[in-house]
Specification:
Blueprint: E1 7-11, H1 15-28, E2 38-43, H2 45-54, E3 62-66, H3 82-88, E4 90-94, E5 97-103, E6 108-113, E7 116-121, E8 127-133, E9 136-144, E10 146-150, H4 158-161, E11 173-179, E12 189-193, E13 198-203, E14 210-214, E15 217-219, E16 222-229, E17 235-239, H5 245-252
Parallel strand pairs: 1-2, 2-3, 3-17
Antiparallel strand pairs: 4-17, 5-6, 5-16, 7-10, 7-14, 8-9, 8-13, 10-11, 11-12, 13-16, 14-15
């Protein structure tokens, strides 16, 4: 019990996170999932994304403390003052992307992604993709190492590394970004309305295999990948005052 804040602590498998978990549980106690009011996740950004997915059915806000490397979605780690930090935390609500991937063997895979859904070549040759937006073919053929659709929350992650734009949190747009585009050469992508339905068709799939990835959940040998926002699903993340997602996204552009 943390004052009036019943907390469920979870941690990644890293030694640092497991050590922090033991100390915090000893100090503050450990609530059962069905009686907790907040979840405190100990790890890095990857573990935060995993926690949000695994605990979605609990409808609890998640407060992360960085015991990993990047920590863009995490708060600074400290053992002291946790009740006060939870009481004062700012909440951000994120809506994920929904991916439906159809594979060469006919299987269909569904997954949610808070950051991005990406398609990546899975062989030595560049991928060939056809891009359709809201039923209209917008690019007959994109030859590239890959492409992705990123949310504002995920725009500073893989999307930014691929030279995609950083999107303000709360903006009703998604970033469609190419990875090493060969044809059209230097094509950087597009900004799309958040309600857009995006379809990727893999061309010459036998010769140029492609994998799809939704926040590190991968599917191989995809033929068609359809992506759209899932506004009916909400993830709540807690941040220390003055260090919320909006501030982090702005600060990232001035590093």
């Amino acid at each position: 019990m943390v004052g009036d804040h019943r907390v469920r602590f979870v941690a990644s498998d890293s030694p640092a996170a497991q050590s922090a978990l033991a100390r915090l549980v000893e100090r503050y106690g450990q609530s059962a999932p069905d009686s907790a009011r907040q979840i405190v996740a100990l790890g890095g950004d990857g573990f935060m994304l995993h926690t949000l997915g695994e605990t979605r059915h609990l409808d609890l806000p998640v407060y992360g403390m960085n015991c990993g490397t990047i920590g863009f979605l995490m708060n600074e780690f400290a053992e002291d003052g946790l009740p006060e930090r939870l009481a004062e935390a700012e909440q951000a609500v994120l809506h994920p992307l929904s991916m439906v991937a159809t594979c060469a063997d006919g299987t269909v895979h569904r997954a949610l992604a808070i950051n991005e859904v990406s398609l990546l070549r899975a062989g030595p040759q560049a991928a060939k993709l056809r891009i359709t937006v809201d039923g209209r073919v917008r690019m007959e053929q994109l030859v590239c190492d890959g492409a992705m659709l990123a949310t504002p929350a995920g725009s500073t992650a893989y999307n930014y590394s691929a030279h995609g734009p950083i999107l303000p949190i709360g903006s009703d747009v998604l970033a469609l970004t190419a990875v090493a585009a060969f044809r059209p050469r230097r094509w950087r992508g597009a900004l799309l309305p958040s309600k857009a339905h995006v379809r990727f068709d893999v061309l010459e799939a036998d010769k140029r295999p492609v994998m799809a990835d939704a926040d590190s959940r991968s599917v191989r040998d995809v033929l068609v990948v359809e992506i759209q926002s899932a506004p009916e699903i909400s993830h709540r993340i807690l941040f220390d005052p003055g260090h919320g997602l909006e501030e982090r996204l702005i600060s990232e552009q001035f590093v």
